[in-house]
Design brief:
The structure is a homodimer of 168-residue chains. Chain A contains five helices and two strands, in the order H-H-E-E-H-H-H. With 168 residues, chain A is mainly alpha-helical. In chain A, strands 1-2 form a two-stranded antiparallel sheet. In chain A, helix 4 runs antiparallel to helix 5. The longest helix of chain A is centred in the last third of the chain and has 52 residues. The first copy, chain A, is flat, with a radius of gyration of 26 Å. The N terminus and C terminus of chain A are likely disordered. At the A-B interface, helix 5 of A face helix 5 of B. Chain B binds a DNA duplex (30 and 30 nucleotides) through helix 2.
DNA sequence: GCTAACCTTCACGTAAACGTCAAGGTTGTG
DNA sequence: CACAACCTTGACGTTTACGTGAAGGTTAGC
């Protein structure tokens, strides 16, 4: 028995399964964080080795990178991330059910459900983006103001620049 | 001694000073959080009453609202918020020095310094915004896809919609 | 000048998100 | 098959960002 392959039915041939440390190196997370994410239900490893080693596939890596991005870049809590990913998962599940359903009414219901979920995601994200945009605008306004001052200094080293047009 | 007025020199006449609970009501923060922000150096109350009550002015309120926004909307840690506000403060200080300096070279140096700081703020914020935008685009793409499906179902309740043009 | 309602400063408790050993099993390479 | 390098599951420690009293001063109204 060569048995480098795990004992699961997730046989995606070309897909090499990685051990937790390799995943950590690949994603920039720590093994502890990855285990913790499993603990709080953010992702289950694709498989376990015979000796119970966690084994991760490509989609796991993708998911972990998503989690990390949501955490670092967007500053969401793990609970919020869980919500967002759960919505994703529900979307996938509905997709499956959708595919196997031939009743147009149910199909429409499933899609509408999915759409609502995506809509919620978008609203959550856009609210955050809007706030950020406001802050960015404020900062840019400050920068613009400073640039004005600089231009003034370049244009003519007037010892009393506050006299020409209301600097404040 | 009528002494409703504090014992500080920050005499901005029309500015009513608020006690911590009033500030809390006004900002949506808790008194504890406000004290904590002071503890970690995010803001000092404008004054103290005779009996050492914390008293806050309008600019304190503004600052607290900013902190809350950065915390809730942008998801920054208090440490990061401290950095951003510190940059702000440095900007103000430089502004003061700028006003009292009459050496054009130094003036330019001060403004350039300030500009660098603002630039850093903008970069930090825009990086975050960019990530968010990516996520929003992805979500919108999913929504668009779902809408397509819905349109297909509305247009004609075809029992085999997967036959018309590669649904996946 | 009494008292309710607020404030103060400790000080300990808590939830989230991990870090860090400890004790022991697994893997694969020589 | 020995053994270093990795993995497992606890379990306790740590930091951040507060919550929650406790013990005692302060303020404002009557």
């Amino acid at each position: 028995m060569p048995a480098t392959t795990p004992t699961t039915t997730t046989s995606t041939p070309g897909t090499a399964l990685l051990k937790i440390q390799e995943v950590a190196a690949e994603t920039g997370l720590t093994p502890r964080s990855i285990r913790y994410y499993q603990e709080v239900g953010l992702l289950e490893p694709a498989a376990r080795s015979e000796g119970a080693y966690r084994l991760y596939d490509a989609s796991d890596l993708e998911r972990l990178r998503t989690i990390k991005e949501l955490r670092d870049e967007a500053g969401f809590s793990l609970a919020q991330i869980g919500q967002l990913l759960e919505d994703e998962a529900a979307r996938e599940r509905n997709r499956e059910r959708f595919r196997s359903s031939h009743d147009p009414t149910e199909r429409r219901a499933l899609i509408n459900d999915a759409r609502d979920r995506v809509e919620r995601q978008i609203e959550t994200l856009e609210a955050k983006a809007a706030r950020l945009a406001e802050m960015i605008d404020a900062a840019k306004e400050r920068r613009r103001h400073l640039d004005e001052h600089l231009a003034e200094l370049e244009g003519g080293p007037d010892p009393h620049p506050e006299r020409r047009g209301h600097v404040r």
